[in-house]
Design a protein that fits this description.
9% of the residues lie in helices and 65% in strands. By secondary structure, it is mostly beta strands. Strands 1-2-3-4-5-7-8-9 form an eight-stranded antiparallel beta barrel.
């Protein structure tokens, strides 16, 4: 079911881009930070630490009317979900982290102010793959990793020139709608944020 949903999303994205007039296309490079919440799914849990990563991909800006436009794209990212110390029987405290690649698909509506700054609100779908848990130098598959991450995003940007854009994007606290793990009772979620540099053709 998740594979069908992912394919349908990509087909819809490709179709939208192919029929839209005056669409601007570009490439975006990003640096990301990741915070894991506690079981209530809202408050950041400091014990998990902050995970970092990077990536990049395609951007499309589709004019709607006046200062309104739709912004979407697809990026391949690498990220560390968390870095923490865990207690193992007989081993004491060891370092553990979770890393993965993900296909990230944002879809939002943006409003441009003064022809320079813009504010966007929308959703972001991340499809993680190659997820691993690394414990004291040993890696294993993250078996219970959820198939998708989904949440409401806020995006702030600055059109430095007509071709160069910098932006900050992040999930709105409390509005991540999926959990990191499918394990029963685990209600923790990932709240990613990224800083991006986009070149528009």
């Amino acid at each position: 079911m998740n594979k069908i949903f992912s394919i349908a999303t990509l087909v819809a994205l490709a179709t939208t881009l192919s029929f839209a007039q005056d669409t601007q296309l570009g490439i975006r490079a990003q640096f990301n930070l990741n915070n894991v919440t506690t079981g209530n799914g809202k408050e950041i849990d400091e014990k998990y630490g902050i995970g970092m990563g990077g990536g990049g991909g395609l951007v499309a800006i589709i004019p709607i009317s006046g200062n309104l436009a739709a912004r979407t794209g697809a990026e391949i990212i690498y990220r560390t979900l968390y870095n923490m110390d865990v207690e193992l029987p007989g081993s004491g405290s060891v370092k553990q982290s979770a890393t993965e690649f993900a296909l990230s698909i944002p879809a939002l509506v943006q409003y441009t102010l003064f022809e320079v700054y813009w504010l966007g609100v929308g959703v972001q779908l991340d499809i993680p793959f190659a997820s691993e848990i690394n414990t004291d130098g040993n890696s294993s598959k993250f078996k219970d990793r959820s198939a998708v991450d989904f949440g409401i995003i806020l995006n702030l940007g600055w059109n430095v020139t007509k071709n160069i854009v910098v932006d900050i994007r992040g999930n709105i606290v409390g509005l991540v709608l999926t959990n990191i793990s499918t394990q029963s009772g685990d209600k923790s979620s990932n709240y990613p944020a990224s800083g991006g540099f986009t070149y528009l053709f």
